[in-house]
Write a structure and sequence with these properties.
- The protein has a single domain (8-63, 93-215), classed as Isochorismatase-like (Rossmann fold), CATH 3.40.50.850.
- α3 (158-171) packs parallel to α4 (188-200).
- It contains 5 helices and 8 strands; from the N terminus they run βαββββαβαβαβα.
- β3 (80-83) and β4 (86-89) form a beta hairpin.
- The protein starts with 7 loop residues before the first strand and ends with a helix.
- A 6-stranded parallel beta sheet has the order 5-2-1-6-7-8, sandwiched between helices. Strands 3-4 form a two-stranded antiparallel ribbon.
- The chain has 218 residues and is α/β, with parallel strands linked by helices.
Length: 218
Amino acid sequence: MHTKQTHIGVIVVDVQGDFTTWKKGSLAVEGTNKTYVTKVERATKLLKKRGFPIFATQDWHPPDHISFYTNHPGKSPFDTIDINGKSQTLWPPHCIQGSEHARIVIDNNLFLAVIKKGQNYLFDSYSGFQDDGGKKTELHTILQWYGIDTVVIYGIATDYCVKATALDAVTYGYGVIVIEELSRGVASVTTRKALTEMRTKGIVIYKAFDIDKIAGKK
């Protein structure tokens, strides 16, 4: 019996200076020290060596971005406000276009494409596929061009951009694997909730990185 070959792509989510403790980022997520970054880079290199196409997402905000608390007088980091009927968490300024800490901190030569997100100052953008205003990035088009039907996703943060990218990938019809070991979440409670939500949507969660297990999906 003939079985359809699976074409797997890899999406490394927002492994940028401002999200890591290693680079003392403004929005550093716990557990993102140099050891973590090295682990992510090593795993990504192994995947590339095995022939998997690798892509990255990158927060790329203008200085006047609506999610920065500094653009809302009297507000503090992590306050929540209402904008056009939607709840918006206010963050410290981070990943500002062209800044040193907006850089992806693993070898950029690993990526076939880097999808920049959050460029519209009016909308936050957790997902690599589209911002909160519904404007789509080029990610889906690129994945389709490469004939990819399944994506392996990991990075920062499990409970925000990893989750949003994974859930949108399901919506677009991709099979999705999230690697927990190569991801870090903002908070343990929201991370557990995110992992549960992803599982309920049919996303496969690998606790540990296992390249042979991933390669066996082909």
